[in-house]
Amino acid sequence: MPNAETLLSIVVPAYNEAQVLPEFHRRLAAVLDGLDLRGEIVYVNDGSSDATLDVMHALKQQDPRVALIDLSRNFGKEIAMTAGLDHARGDAVVVIDADLQDPPELIPELVRVWREGYDVAYAKRTAREGESWLKRATARAFYGVIQHVGRVRIPENTGDFRLLSRRAVDALGQLREQHRFMKGLFAWIGFPQKAVPYVRQPRHAGHTKWNYWRLWNFALDGITSFSIAPLKIATYLGFVLALAAFVYGSWIILKTLAFGDPVPGYPSLMTMILFLGGVQLLFIGVLGEYLGRMFDESKRRPLYLINAYEPADVTRED
Ligand code: UDP
Ligand code: MG
What we know:
Blueprint: E1 7-14, H1 21-33, E2 38-45, H2 52-62, E3 66-71, H3 77-87, E4 92-95, H4 107-115, E5 120-128, H5 133-149, E6 158-165, H6 166-173, H7 182-189, E7 193-200, H8 212-226, H9 229-259, H10 266-298, E8 306-310
Parallel strand pairs: 1-2, 1-4, 2-3, 5-7
Antiparallel strand pairs: 3-8, 4-6, 5-6
Bound molecules: uridine-5'-diphosphate and magnesium ion.
């Protein structure tokens, strides 16, 4: 049972966050100081091109709770997070963004829910501050689609900010797929989960790394890793089109038998060819999305490579 000997790990993926890290660490350290747990802060440098790594080293100098993972290049947040989870030693692990959009002050509440017996305490935002209506609308559309086509239920308005119990972390550690749609993986493992509401803040400093193209690809990953519905759509659409073609064909034959064929049907022919060609190309594209992912998985590459790993001093076994 959790007590003062319990270790809580905080995993922080960071890509070009030198501007916010000192302030982030100050706030996080203050929160950890107030908890009756030992803390470990796992900073993952995801191939930053600014001074992020230097800032992390400086933080490690002044705080023995800091562990540092330096990835060999930029792998993206999902994989940086996985590297952190793989190295976190805590009895429970919190995943949090470095940009202070996820308030560290919520962590005690997550811990409380964990102590109630839940394996996953996920932060659910009640308001999306500082986000455009377009981003909110696209997010809503995405959740609408994934809820309908997916087999696992992914909670809406929920990011990666959450606490995971040891067995949840271990379960997640067994999922080694390359296309890591983390929200889906978190949902896939199941276990008792509970939402903790909070207000999402605007970024403290620096820039978001998500543009619409990245978000679109993220959405494609989300759908293709958790549903084969798009492949089924091809089957049904093909069936409906074939049926329509059969009916239309019969009609033409009857008409020709009855009235002869006074006008060659160039426009309708053209429309059909273009339409069918378009539908075929579209679904070859859909097939390609899945095939490409199978190609990536079949290479069985490691998810990430580590340039340097320095464990926290507090967790070192003497
Ligand atoms: N991040 C990362 N690798 C990347 C992109 C982002 O580790 O390639 C980290 C980033 O430093 C931050 C978190 O992931 O801690 C969330 O990124 P961001 O704030 O850009 O995303 P948003 O909040 O806009 O979804
Ligand atoms: Mg952010």
